[in-house]
Design goal:
This protein has about 350 residues and is α/β, with parallel strands linked by helices. Helices cover about 25% and strands about 20% of the residues.
């Protein structure tokens, strides 16, 4: 199994590739970054799949914020304009509202003017007869895709109902979480000048964005490997789902990779959640040069300094970029902090990170 993380600025764009129990290669895309992410990297990756006669078996769009859905919108426009072959077999996506009047399948999605990204993707999936017939929520049992198991950890059906209630009157969809998250729960400045040990691990205020809470997040299991993708999910929801699966502090989830929630936002990564996770490798999909001030050092401190971790096991923090600001995160600490807390940071200048599990 291979895990790809594509550079998407302050967004998510990932791919899992594996050889299924049918002996064939399979690909799952996780979110898609911004529209420009498609032009920058995803279009080339999709063309490579086409050249290799491979398909995208499943494309999961976690929620409606533009740093997660934008690349898929650009893909749909490219397909609509006959620039790209449609190779996606199945989509996981929760439309943000109920559409009482069926869309006209002859409508040109590229001509839409008054609707936002979540509606555009709905139109495309409806036109191509690939709109999911059920909601992707914690009510679903484990999904099996050619031997790869997928456990849905968020959202709950209640959250999806709340989301559709919010947008039931045709209200424009919120594209950016900065528009909705309160300043007390989102970073307004980078916190990299603070020492790692200065953060109170128990002082946690959860993200209050309904859109982020509606994120699809999953645990992938293939043979003896596990990947935890948290998207922009809320830790209380994921914690409850993992607890229902039987995981706890004395029986933690052991996984190979964690894609850190909301690009390491302080309001989406709680100590309580990491109490029941044992993992050596953490992936942060943010460039450190954004108005969201992500990743936050506070969130990383809850991972590195978690009192339940075994300090004898080294932690690897992987960053999808190699920027001066990312390298500044631990500059206020002395070099001894790496030895004391037994972790290292790995940066990349490439458009994508590839991990072979």
């Amino acid at each position: 199994m291979e895990l790809y993380c594509y550079q998407a600025e302050c967004g998510d764009a990932l791919r899992i590739r594996y050889i299924g129990d049918d002996g064939n290669p399979h690909n799952i895309f996780l979110d898609s970054g911004y529209e420009r992410t498609f032009r920058y990297v995803l279009q080339q990756e999709i063309n490579s799949l086409i050249d290799s006669n491979e398909s995208i078996d499943l494309w999961i769009i976690s929620h409606i914020h533009d740093d997660h859905i934008g690349g898929a919108i650009k893909y749909s426009k490219s397909v609509n304009d006959s620039e790209t072959k449609d190779i996606v077999k199945t989509w996981f996506y929760n439309p943000p509202r109920k559409y009482s009047i069926p869309k006209n399948n002859n409508d040109d999605i590229s001509s839409a003017k008054s609707i936002r990204q979540g509606d555009l993707l709905y139109d495309f999936l409806l036109q191509t007869n690939k709109l999911p017939t059920f909601d992707i929520t914690t009510n679903l049992s484990c999904q099996n895709l050619f031997g790869l198991k997928m456990y849905i950890l968020s959202p709950t059906s209640t959250t999806i109902t709340e989301l559709r209630e919010k947008y039931k009157d045709g209200r424009l969809l919120v594209r950016n979480e900065i528009d909705t998250i309160s300043s007390t729960k989102a970073a307004s400045i980078f916190d990299y000048d603070r020492l790692l040990e200065s953060f109170d691990l128990n002082n946690f205020e959860e993200d209050d964005s309904l859109e982020n809470r509606s994120s699809i997040s999953l645990l992938f299991e293939f043979e003896d490997k596990k990947i935890l993708w948290l998207a922009d999910s809320h830790p209380t929801v994921v914690y409850e789902s993992l607890s229902k699966m039987g995981f706890s502090e004395i029986n933690p989830l052991i996984c190979d990779f964690v894609i850190v929630s909301h690009h390491a936002s302080k309001g989406n990564n709680s100590s309580e959640l990491y109490h029941i996770i044992r993992c050596d490798n953490y992936l942060v999909s943010s460039d450190g040069e954004n108005t969201h001030c992500l990743p936050t050092k506070e969130a990383l401190s809850r991972i590195i300094r978690n009192p339940r971790r075994d300090l004898a096991i080294p932690y690897n923090l992987y960053f999808a970029y190699d920027t001066d600001n990312l390298k500044r995160i631990f500059q206020s600490d002395t070099e001894s902090v790496y030895r004391k807390w037994n972790f290292k940071t790995i940066y990349t200048k490439d458009k994508s990170l590839l991990f072979r599990l």
